[in-house]
Amino acid sequence: MTRRVLLIEDEPHIAEAIRYLLVRDGWAVASHGEGRSALEVIRREAPDVVVLDVILPGRSGYEILEELRADPDLTSLPVLVLSARGQSSDRALAEGAGASRFIAKPFANAEILAALRQMAGA
Amino acid sequence: MVPFNILVAVCLIYVCLLFLVAFAAERRAERGRAGWLRSPIIYTLSLSIYCTAWTFYGAVGYAARSGLEFVTIYLGPTLVLVGWWLLLRKLVRIGQAQRVTSIADLISSRYGKSNLLGVIVTVIAVVGATPYIALQLQSVTLSFGVFASGTPEGWALPDQSATALWVAGGLTLFTILFGTRNLDANERHHGVVMAIALEAVVKLVALLAVGVFVVWGVADGVGDVMARIDASSIADWPLVPGRWIGLTFVSSAAVLTLPRMFQVMVVENSDERHLATASWAFPLYLMLMSLFVLPIAVVGLSVLPEGANPDLFVLTLPLAEGQGKLAMLAFLGGFSSATSMVIVAAIALATMVSNHIVTPLWLSLRAGGARAPGDVRGLVLMSRRVSIGAILALGYSYYHLSGGSAALAAIGLISFVGVAQILPAMIGGIFWRGATAVGAAMGLVTGFLVWLYALYLPSFGAGGLLSEAILRDGPAGIGWLRPQALFGIDSLDPLLHALFWSISLNTGVFVAGSLLSFPSPVERMQGLAFVNAFEHDPGARGWSRGGAEAEDLLTMSQGILGAEEAQRFFQAEAAAQGTAGYLPETTPEFIERLERRLAGAVGTATAHAMIAQFAVGAAVSAQDLMAVASEAQQILEYSTQLEAKSEELARTARQLQEANEKLKDLSVQKDTFLSQISHELRTPMTSIRAFSEILMDPDLPGALQQKYAEVIHEETIRLTRLLDDLLDLSVLENRKVQLSVKVANLHDLLNKAVQAASNTRPERSFSIRREFSAEHMPVITDTDRLVQVFINLVSNARKYCDAERPELTIAARRRGGRIIVDFIDNGSGIPKASQRLIFEKFSRLTDTARAGGAGLGLAICREIMANLGGTIAYLPGQGGAAFRVSVPVRPEVAAEGEAA
């Protein structure tokens, strides 16, 4: 069964790189480039894993994450938070908001792949 | 013989002369030509008020009764003056630094400006000095009497009391006239000092003249006198070491603590260096004063009839030898000794009584009386005058009541022991930081009471003020409380006995009280200033020097937290560390906790700044911080109205907190900025890293290789541009830009900008409307920078204009000395709420980050325009997004514009 991932990332180049990596790894990839309608897209796409950028136009990744965790259907959905701010305080903030994993930009491609494989398998 | 009337006339003439001298000196000083009035010789001569009538007449009597022992009275001052750098220099330095007005003021000031101590010292001084003043009145009266009894025609001896009254009245008038002419901040009295310097010369000359007459006129020269001394009973007097040491100690103490000596030595001192001269000149003066004491005594004993009063030999010897004029001179010498002492003592005591008793009382009696300062000055002057009158009246009453009894003869030394009680508090105060007001007050009172009980009261004789039974058996028959044999020690002579007990109990109680009590913050500050008097030259304070740190931190903290709170905190910390006492070790942990504690009151930034001053010893003046802390703390200390105080403190705290908020805001702004930069740098780096790793894959199809390499290239350019922008902005913000000013045609500049902006993505149809004819005008500015602004505005329009057929209108015109260029597009414009934000750093409004910039463009434009002396602003209400650039035609116009 194909694992399905939803990328929520406004930087097209970054989204494109991740998409390339995952497609090559056998994932089905959907992507979305802004924050306001992100939750609707998540509900519609019902992915196995979500990759969520923090700074998004329209709405911040943390806000999306908090609302997502408040929804009983989505409480356990694995979410990987990608952030261009890599301090430990940012990691704590992400985990507080309900992130399953936190990876700071710039990342190693293998790191993202390993994390997503593990999250989808669990 | 000298008729009484002539004697009185001579006295009056002499007094008039003194008036003239004092008056002339005052006038000179007022005209700012004090010059030689402040010479070290005048200073030294003014110290001679130490030699009162008691020494002028009494030294001979003393020698006749007790041999050489009279020398001790001169030995003490000599030691103090010779060792001036040890004690006197410090006293004078402190006196000037603290603007000390009297010895009571010195003690009060040292111990936290405690008025109680001022009152105690004043009382001791007045009680000690009153009999002494009486003694001077007596000596003048007696010397009048000598002349009266010696006259063959027997002019009626006027009532002695009346003579004393006239003398007292005259002295009161003189003292008031020259001692309270004005309120000088430094309490200096040039006229008085000049007059007593003249009197010092008169008394020295008089005594020397009598001496010379006695040695070469009555006796047959030096050899004969020496032989007579050997033959007389004076040579038989044994030297008692205990008495010598004791008396030398008392006279050294007295020269430091007698109010009149303190007045001339410290208060009237105008230059510390005068001490160096006085250190040899004053002992020399004393030596000359004592040179002929023994010869006069010996010759007097042998020449004059049995039973003649040796205290008056100086007068009676010349009279007996028929030397009327010499006797007259001797009389003037004694008169000078008495008057100069009384005048200075009255000034010094009046200052103390007025400052520490009358004025505080008067002010507290008229509660709520907030009067103008001028009124208080008048009040102080009046209270001084009244005090002078009162002190002389006291002296006169004492004289009158004691009936000129023999008790007066011994009063000199008794008085010395009395004022010597101030010594422990004084020495402790200037050498020991640990001395406290409680200790000083307890010591002073103890010493004073012991002195009263063991020396002063018994001096009136059995059945005088103390009954014979008490003197013999002790009060209520308690043997160890016998006044002259306290604790069973009855082998000492009464003076030494009283000296020993009063000074040792005084010192013991003072030290114990100081160790057991906790000084107030003001006391700490003052203690520091006094003990380190020589280190307190402006700018030379070393707060961070070892050992003092904890104290300094405490002093500062008290200013912020309040004394009790701070002391509790420090004590708790010390206890936690296991340190004895109330000062903890200044470990980093302790300092950190203290900082947090202070931060609760004044905010973290301020607290840290304050602590850092002490912990690091920064170059910025710690003194200033101490001053701030001390001010705040004085509000705490002195304000009796709790509410006013807390309001004041709350306001201070609020101001400090506001300052702290501002610092925090700045800090947040800085953090936000750094965080944004980090974000803006990481984003392109992420793409670059991800695609580089992808490119390492050997299986990557060629087409993708090409595409991804392009992405990396593009992102690298984005990174470079971001760094350039940041550097540019930082230079512009610091106004460190080197402008290269050139002349150009505005039309050409706009062409250049439109051309450069045309390669901006997205490539879509975009039209620009310009009116070329209006654009032809010269502009003198940094043209490259101006074009940079234009490019930014044009490409912003290209990027963000959301109209279906985007169009930008550029309109230029000249207005006054300025060129105005408007850039208006036909899009939906910028929402009102965001219009103010767009010029801030990283304030990108659009959702799509694809615009390519980092959000620094308009911030840079604003800074450029500021550097060029122009402006850039958003023009609301134009339909689309509209910006107006205004630039001066010439740089000078910018300068004029700013000046106007």
Write the layout of secondary structure elements.
The complex is a heterodimer of chains A (122) and B (900).
Chain A: E1 4-8, H1 12-24, E2 28-32, H2 38-45, E3 49-53, H3 61-70, E4 79-83, H4 88-97, E5 101-104, H5 109-121
Parallel strand pairs in A: 1-2, 1-3, 3-4, 4-5
Chain B: H1 4-30, H2 40-47, H3 53-56, H4 58-66, H5 71-82, H6 88-97, H7 103-110, H8 115-150, H9 160-179, H10 190-218, H11 222-231, H12 241-257, H13 259-267, H14 274-291, H15 293-303, H16 313-320, H17 324-365, H18 373-402, H19 411-420, H20 422-431, H21 437-456, H22 468-473, H23 494-516, H24 521-531, H25 549-561, H26 563-577, H27 588-602, H28 604-616, H29 622-638, H30 642-695, H31 702-733, E1 742-745, H32 746-757, E2 767-770, H33 772-775, E3 778-781, H34 783-800, E4 807-815, E5 818-825, H35 832-835, H36 857-868, E6 871-874, E7 882-888, H37 891-899
Parallel strand pairs in B: 2-4
Antiparallel strand pairs in B: 1-3, 4-5, 5-7, 6-7
Helix pairs in contact in B: 1-10, 2-10, 2-14, 4-15, 5-12, 5-14, 7-8, 8-9, 8-17, 8-18, 8-19, 8-21, 9-17, 9-18, 10-14, 10-15, 10-17, 11-15, 12-13, 12-19, 13-17, 15-16, 16-17, 17-18, 19-21, 19-23, 21-23, 25-26, 25-29, 27-28, 30-31, 31-36, 32-34, 34-36
Question: What would you note in describing this structure?
Answer:
- The complex is a heterodimer of chains A (122) and B (900).
- With 122 residues, chain A is an alpha/beta fold.
- Chain A has one domain: Rossmann fold (3-Layer(aba) Sandwich), CATH 3.40.50.2300.
- Chain A is 44% helix and 20% strand.
- Chain A contains five helices and five strands.
- Chain A has helices at residues 12-24, 38-45, 61-70, 88-97, 109-121; strands at 4-8, 28-32, 49-53, 79-83, 101-104.
- Chain A has a five-stranded parallel beta sheet, with helices on both faces.
- The longest helix of chain A has 13 residues, at 12-24.
- The two termini of chain A are 15 Å apart.
- The mean pLDDT of chain A is 89.
- Chain B is mainly alpha-helical.
- Chain B has four domains: 4-26 and 43-403, Sodium/glucose cotransporter, CATH 1.20.1730; 421-536, no CATH class; 537-638, no CATH class; 740-899, 2-Layer Sandwich (Heat Shock Protein 90).
- Chain B is 67% helix and 4% strand.
- Chain B is built from 37 helices and seven strands.
- Chain B has a five-stranded mixed beta sheet.
- In chain B, β4 and β5 (818-825) form a beta hairpin.
- In chain B, α5 (71-82) packs antiparallel against α14, α7 packs antiparallel against α8 and α12 (241-257) crosses α13 (259-267).
- The longest helix of chain B has 54 residues, at 642-695.
- The radius of gyration of chain B is 44 Å and the shape is elongated.
- The termini of chain B are far apart.
